[in-house]
Amino acid sequence: GSTRAPRGRCFATGGYERTQRTLIGCIKESLESAVRDKFSDYLETVDITECANPSLGDYQCSSAMQIFSALRKAGETDFCNPREVAAVIVDGISDTTTFDSITIAGAGFINFKLSDHFILTRLRELGKTVKPTSSGESGSVLVDFSSPNIAKEMHVGHLRSTIIGDALCNVFEFCGLKTIRLNHVGDWGTQFGMLIQFMTDNKVSPDSAVSDLQECYKRAKERFDQDDDFKSQSKQAVIKLQSYDADALRTWKQICDASRAEFQTIYDRLNISIIERGESYYNDMIPAVLDELVAKNVVVEDAGALCIFDDDHAEAPVICRKSDGGFNYASTDLAAIRHRALEEKVDRIIYVTDQGQQKHFRAIFKTAHAAGWGHGGVVFEHVGFGVVLGEDGKRLRTRSGETVKLKSLLDEAEERCLQFLKEKGTDLSAEELSTASRILGVSSVKYADLHNNRLTAYTFSFDRMLDLKGNTAMYLQYSHARVATILRKAPTLDLPLDGLHFENAAERLLAVHLIKLDDVLAATMKELAPSKICDYLYTLCTMFNNFYAECKVIGGENEASRLFLCMRTAATMKIAFSLLGMEPLERL
Ligand code: ARG
């Protein structure tokens, strides 16, 4: 066939893993030079994981087993078992500063324990404020996220897209990538015909509130399905709009403005920055783009419609020009992907939508590759997510069966946080209380979403989301406020910190966790999984709380080292919070 298989995901193999010296990068480097000397023909990359049991070491490598079986396959008999291979690797490690001990365990695992000196140096190198030791991938990335539809309200699906997309952009930006945040708003298409027609018939003002527009939309759709006259008038209205008739355009623009203002209130509350570039932006590009695809034989005409045939759509092809000549969602996405790859010239293009659109995007990506737009190694990726369920296990709905409005969801979260704080008792002033509950409410909603594996459906539950003892933003916020409070009371530290050392296992565990941030950032960018930052932050908080339960900080022994750990913890928590789009509270 004419479709070329999509390029491999360059990001999975290339770039930062070789060049960036994250913590794991450092260990790999020492290890790889030892492996390279003896076994380079038998192994491509060494594999390093965290030790499940920290008493064995901090990191573990299982490559000796792999090398041993490769040796066996090749008929080499110099080694009797993987432990012997491991011994040769360990012997070859020349790095004497990174590790305190390297031991061989079990069938041939190599366990690494980092030296305290290395840990502390690395902690210090992070500087006063924590920064990634080097930016991850170089290059640029474009993220299409949020993307609600005009004349409809944003629903929880758009909320997920907004929160996940924003977190991914934050990580890219923090790591120094040029990041373009695009809002592919649904602002064009046949639905506008019936909407304009309905509003004209009923003398509805186009700058009505979105909830009114949505009502119009519903009623217009009903009439469209029942009333043939209305249907043909609506079609006329679309044609007028698509030929840029001044009246139709004016009404269209007013409708868009009303929706836009409504979306903006949500973005303001969630503190989201995004550039609107809706479907209408690409409208004029579509005919030439489709011509190009026809000429390249990538799309074909079938029963008057222009179609993308691929394995995912064995039953019905993806239509990219309707038989009446009209354009649709797919037509727009083809023009958009071409524009992004060839005009924006970014290295990586990411779409954040519910998992239900996965096949649509696969077809678009295949088509783009087949047309040669991925030329030069542009990577196209779909970041899908699962549905949000109500506590009844069904898709989240209001009692009357409507989709839940974002505004009421955020209102309720904030209200419940206010109640919670009041009941718990605080010495915050009324004003501080209202700010705190606003911040707590928003961060709870965001974190409840982000900490899940994005692909699994999750159950929305205020009770669970606001549980102080759970894996929740509440818990994280209280942990951050705790360390912030210690630092407010602390004497100012005298740097340089030559006498830093660990006296206690909890101190060391916390320190090792702190220097893992870079690896977590790299993994998040590779897997496009903000939940990795959540796991990191949650573990950081539990480790800090363990440390604090065991170690007296101010006025205790080892005070300078402990204060230093608190400073690093606070700085790292702040970064993780901000990557997740959450504002950390200084006091609670
Ligand atoms: N407006 C669409 C929806 O609500 C999402 C658009 C996603 N982006 C895209 N380029 N198709 O489902």
From TrEMBL:
Keywords: Aminoacyl-tRNA synthetase, ATP-binding, Cytoplasm, Ligase, Nucleotide-binding, Protein biosynthesis
This protein's name: arginine--tRNA ligase
Catalytic activity, reaction form: tRNA(Arg) + L-arginine + ATP = L-arginyl-tRNA(Arg) + AMP + diphosphate
Organism: Ostreococcus tauri
Pfam families: Arg_tRNA_synt_N (PF03485), DALR_1 (PF05746), tRNA-synt_1d (PF00750)
Taxonomy, superkingdom: Eukaryota
GO molecular function: arginine-tRNA ligase activity; ATP binding
HAMAP family in the cross-refs: Arg_tRNA_synth
PANTHER family linked: ARGININE--TRNA LIGASE, CYTOPLASMIC, ARGINYL-TRNA SYNTHETASE
